[in-house]
Design brief:
The complex is a heterodimer. By secondary structure, chain A is an alpha+beta fold. Chain A is built from eleven helices and 29 strands. Chain A has helices at residues 41-47, 84-100, 152-159, 178-190, 213-226, 270-275, 307-312, 395-399, 416-421, 446-462, 464-467, and strands spanning 6-8, 14-16, 23-24, 31-32, 57-63, 68-71, 75-78, 104-111, 119-130, 134-148, 166-171, 196-202, 205-210, 229-241, 246-257, 265-267, 282-288, 291-296, 301-306, 324-334, 339-341, 344-346, 349-355, 366-370, 381-386, 408-413, 429-430, 437-438, 473-474. Helix content of chain B is 33%, strand content 21%. Classes of the chains: A alpha+beta, B alpha/beta.
Chain lengths: 518, 245
C-alpha cells in the first residue's frame, strides 16, 4: 500500500517518500511542478510585472573637471567608473523607490557602456511577493544619464586660478631664517600644509594660502602648538548674494612668532625677572617650542615662559647667534656636579678663555663662569657672546643699576676645526623642502641664504633633540669615504644611520631601483 | 461537457450549488441567472431545487449527498428540511445529523460508492454517512489538508485533487476510490477544487475564471466529452498525467 522507497525517521516512524507530481499550468497547459500560483513562471511573469512602478531612468550630475558626482544637496564625491563605490552610489538613489514598492534588491551589476556615452547602466535583480505567497524574481536594467555640471570648487578655480579663501601670514622679526628652516621641516613631517594651494616666501616670513577657512584655522593651531605665537585674524567681504544672503569672505590670519631663538642672549626686563623668581637678568635661551626655555648660565637655574606669558611682556634678545665669537679655552675648573635640566646635561665650571682673534696677539684673557663644564677641555674651541667688546644699546640693560655684566658668555662648543676636514664632502642624509614661491620683489641674498642653511644643517647634526621632530632621509649619492678616518680626541657629531628614513622614491629614477628604497 | 458560469459575480460555483446524479440544489440569488443555467442543462433530467440551509446561501458547502441520500447539518431549519423532503425524489433519504463540524460539504467528499471524510469526524456521523449515503467511508487527508471536502472532488467516473498531491498519495487515493485521479486546479490556479466547481457523471459546472487548460483537464478526467476517438483526443491524453488502476 505504501510507496516504493521509505526512509526510517529518527522517531522510528515509517515515512513514505513523497514525489511531487506535475500539474498543467492553468494558462498555457505545459506540465510543471505545482507552486503557489499554479502557473508556470512564464505565465506568471506575463501576468505580473514586478518592475512596474520602479524607476528605470535616473540622472547623475557629474563634474568633468574633477571627475566627481553630485550627492545632493551640495557635496561632491569623487568616484571611478565601474567601481564598487559608484554602484553603491547608484543603488542608493534607487533604494527609496524600491522600498515604497515593497520589492527587495537581490543583486546588481554594471552593464558595460562606452566611456563617452554619458550613460551608466546597472542590471538590478529584485524579488517581490505576488499572488498568494509566490515570490517572483526579475531582473531589469536601470539607465543613469550623466549630466555635466561643474562643481563649485572647479568653477571657482576656473574663474580665478589664484583664488584663495584663507591666508596665513607667518612672520618673525629677526634677521635670520633659522626658525623658518626648522618650521619647514616640521610642517613637512606633520603634513600641515597638505591643503595649502600656494606657499610664498616673503622677507621675514612665509605666506600660506588655503581654499577653505577651516584649513587655515587648522594650520594656525598647528603652528601655535610648535612655536610661541601671537595671532590675529580678519576677514574681508568679497561678494554678497542679496537673494540667498550668502556672503563670501577672504580670511587672513596674521601669526607672529616670538623673536627669541635658541642660543640667544637675553637680558630680562626687571618685571619678568622678578616674576620668574629673580632669575639673573642675563639668561640664555636653550629651547623654543610652544614655550621658551631660559637658562641662567651662572647659576644653572632654568625656567619656562609660555606663549601667553611672553607676549604679555615681550622682550627682545640682547645678542643673537650672528654675533657669536670664537673663543679658545685655556683652562677649565669644574665647580659643581653634573645636572640634567630638561634632558640636557650641564655642569658649572670656571673657565679661562681668550678670543681667537686675541690669541697669540695679546694677552687678553677672561675668567668666566660657564655651564659647559661637561663638554669643554683645555684646548677646545667654543662659541660665545663677547660682552666685553660689545656695545649694547638695550633699554632693559639700562634699567638695571649696578649690574655687573660678565665679560663673556659661552654658548656652545665649536667643531669648526673638524668641519674643515670634512669640507666639501656630502652628508649621509638630506632633507626635503616645501615648494615655495620666492617673491622677486623681496631682497634675497643668495649667499646669505646658503650659509644660513648650512648653519642649520650643522645645528641639526649637533643637537639630537632638534632632530626629534624632523624626518631625515638617506642621501642616495652619499658614499662613505674609503680612507680610514683619523680619529681625534672626539669625533665630529653626526647623525647616526639608524635615525635616517629610507626615502620612498616613487618617481622613475635610474638609481632609484637600488636598495635605498624600502 | 463543462459549463462556465458565475454566481453573482463570484466564480466559486461549488459553494453555491450541490450537484448529484439524482438532483441538484441551487442557492437563491438576486437574479435568476444562476438557476437558469442549471435549469437549461438539467431541467428535463433531474430536479433542480432552489434552497438555503439554515438561512445561509452556501448550500454546496453545508450539505453532502449522492443519489442515495442527503445529509444536512443540525442548524437546518424545519421549513428547509420539509421543503427539501418535498422537492426531492422519494428514493433520496434526507437526514439532519448532529455533528460538531456543521460544514459537511467541506468535511466530506463522496460519490455514489465511496466517501472521504475529515479525520476529526464523529463516529456516529461516520455510521450515518455509511447508512444514509450507502457508501464506504475513509478518513483521509489530501496533500496535508484535512478538509478533504474542499480540496478534492470526484464523481463515479473520475476525480480531481489538490495540485500539490504527491504521486504516491495519488496512487493511494486512486486505489481507495477506485476511480482515476489527476492533480489539477480550477478558476485560474485555485486549489479549492470542490468550491470552484461541481460535477456529476455527465456534466460539470465551473467558475468563469477557469482557463481552457483546466477545462480540458476536467473534461478528460471526468470523461465528460462525447466519446470521439480522434487524433486530438489521443494527443491530449499523452500530455496529461493519468493514474489508472
Amino acid at each position: 500500500m505504501f510507496g516504493s522507497s521509505g526512509m526510517a525517521e529518527e522517531a522510528g516512524m515509517f515515512k513514505v517518500h513523497q514525489t511531487i507530481g506535475s500539474v498543467l499550468c492553468c494558462k498555457c497547459g505545459i506540465p510543471m511542478q505545482p507552486n503557489a500560483a499554479n502557473m508556470c513562471v512564464k505565465c506568471l511573469r506575463s501576468e505580473v510585472d514586478i518592475t512596474e512602478g520602479l524607476l528605470k531612468r535616473l540622472v547623475l550630475v557629474h563634474c568633468p573637471e574633477c571627475e566627481s558626482y553630485l550627492q545632493p544637496p551640495r557635496s561632491w564625491v569623487k568616484l571611478q567608473l565601474e567601481s564598487k563605490e559608484l554602484l553603491t552610489f547608484c543603488l542608493k538613489k534607487l533604494q527609496k523607490n524600491l522600498n515604497s514598492n515593497k520589492v527587495r534588491l537581490v543583486h546588481a551589476e554594471f552593464i558595460w557602456t562606452e566611456p563617452h556615452s554619458k550613460r551608466v547602466k546597472v542590471r538590478v535583480k529584485v524579488q517581490k511577493e505576488v499572488l498568494n505567497g509566490a515570490i517572483l524574481e526579475q531582473s531589469y536594467p536601470v539607465e543613469y544619464v550623466q549630466q555635466e555640471h561643474m562643481c563649485d570648487s572647479c568653477t571657482r578655480v576656473q574663474a580665478n586660478p589664484d583664488q584663495w579663501v584663507a591666508a596665513v601670514q607667518l612672520r618673525q622679526h629677526v634677521s635670520h631664517r633659522r626658525t623658518f628652516f626648522y618650521l619647514e621641516q616640521l610642517i613637512l613631517k606633520h603634513g600641515a600644509a597638505a591643503s595649502a594651494i600656494r606657499i610664498k616666501q616673503m622677507e621675514q616670513g612665509i605666506d600660506f594660502f588655503f581654499s577653505n577657512r577651516s584649513h587655515g584655522v587648522k594650520f594656525v593651531e598647528f603652528i601655535g602648538k610648535v612655536a610661541p605665537v601671537k595671532s590675529r585674524h580678519d576677514k574681508q567681504l568679497v561678494s554678497h548674494d542679496p537673494k540667498s544672503n550668502n556672503y563670501n569672505y577672504k580670511y587672513t590670519f596674521s601669526v607672529e612668532l616670538s623673536p627669541i631663538c635658541r642660543e640667544d642672549l637675553i637680558c630680562l626686563p626687571p618685571k619678568v625677572a622678578v616674576s620668574l623668581g629673580n632669575i639673573g637678568p642675563i639668561v640664555i635661551c636653550t629651547k623654543v617650542t610652544n614655550s621658551i626655555a631660559l637658562l641662567d648660565p651662572f647659576t644653572l637655574r632654568h625656567c619656562f615662559l609660555d606663549a601667553d606669558q611672553y607676549w604679555r611682556t615681550s622682550f627682545k634678545s640682547l645678542l643673537t647667534s650672528r654675533q657669536l665669537v670664537e673663543y679658545i679655552v685655556l683652562d677649565v675648573e669644574v665647580v659643581s656636579s653634573e645636572v640634567t635640566i630638561g634632558g640636557t646635561k650641564y655642569r658649572l665650571a670656571d673657565a679661562q678663555v681668550a678670543r681667537v682673534s686675541d690669541f697669540g696677539k695679546n694677552d687678553t684673557i677672561f675668567n668666566v663662569k660657564t655651564h659647559l663644564g661637561h663638554l669643554l677641555n683645555p684646548g677646545d674651541y667654543a662659541l660665545g657672546y663677547d660682552l666685553y667688546g660689545a656695545n649694547s644699546n638695550d633699554m632693559e640693560l639700562d634699567k638695571y643699576r649696578g649690574l655687573v655684566l660678565p665679560e663673556a658668555v659661552l654658548i656652545k662648543k665649536s667643531y669648526e676645526e673638524k668641519r674643515q676636514k670634512k669640507r666639501g664632502k656630502p652628508r649621509a642624509w638630506k632633507l626635503k623642502s616645501l615648494e615655495m614661491e620666492v617673491d622677486d620683489k623681496a631682497r634675497v641674498d643668495q649667499d646669505k641664504m646658503v650659509s644660513e642653511y648650512e648653519q642649520f644643517l650643522k645645528d641639526l647634526e649637533e643637537n639630537p633633540d632638534m632632530r626629534f621632530n624632523i624626518s631625515l632621509y638617506r642621501n642616495a649619492e652619499y658614499q662613505p669615504s674609503e680612507m680610514a678616518s683619523v680619529t681625534d680626541g672626539d669625533e665630529l657629531p653626526s647623525v647616526p644611520l639608524e635615525e635616517l628614513l629610507a626615502d620612498l622614491d616613487l618617481s622613475e629614477d635610474e638609481d632609484g631601483e637600488d636598495n635605498m628604497m624600502e | 461537457m463543462a459549463t462556465r458560469l458565475q454566481f453573482e459575480n463570484c466564480c466559486e460555483v461549488g459553494v453555491f450549488s450541490k450537484l448529484t446524479n439524482a438532483y441538484c440544489l441551487v442557492a437563491i440569488g438576486g437574479s435568476e441567472n444562476f438557476y437558469s443555467s442549471f435549469e437549461a442543462e438539467l431541467a428535463d433530467v433531474i430536479p433542480v431545487i432552489k434552497t438555503s440551509i439554515s438561512g445561509i446561501r452556501t448550500v454546496g458547502r453545508l450539505c453532502v449527498g449522492n443519489k442515495n441520500g442527503l445529509l444536512l447539518p443540525h442548524t437546518t431549519t424545519d421549513q428547509e428540511l420539509q421543503h427539501l423532503r418535498n422537492s426531492l425524489p422519494d428514493q433520496v433519504l434526507v437526514q439532519r445529523i448532529d455533528e460538531r463540524l456543521t460544514a459537511l460539504g467541506n468535511c466530506i467528499a463522496c460519490n455514489d460508492h465511496v466517501a472521504l471524510t475529515h479525520i476529526d469526524l464523529d463516529k456516529e456521523t461516520e455510521d450515518m454517512i455509511a447508512d444514509v449515503l450507502k457508501v464506504e467511508v475513509f478518513r483521509q487527508t489530501i496533500a496535508s489538508n484535512i478538509i478533504v471536502g474542499s480540496y478534492c472532488t470526484f464523481s463515479n467516473r473520475g476525480g480531481l485533487v489538490h495540485p500539490h498531491t504527491s504521486i504516491e498519495e495519488l496512487e493511494e487515493l486512486s486505489t481507495l476510490l477506485d476511480v482515476p485521479l489527476v492533480a489539477g486546479t480550477v478558476n485560474r490556479g485555485s486549489e479549492l477544487l470542490a468550491a470552484g466547481m461541481t460535477v456529476n457523471d455527465w456534466i460539470a459546472f465551473c467558475g468563469s475564471d477557469t482557463t481552457a487548460t483546466e477545462l480540458s483537464v476536467i473534461e478528460s478526467i471526468f470523461k465528460l466529452r462525447e466519446v470521439q476517438p480522434g487524433v486530438t483526443m489521443h494527443e491530449m491524453r499523452k500530455s496529461l498525467f493519468d493514474s489508472f488502476l
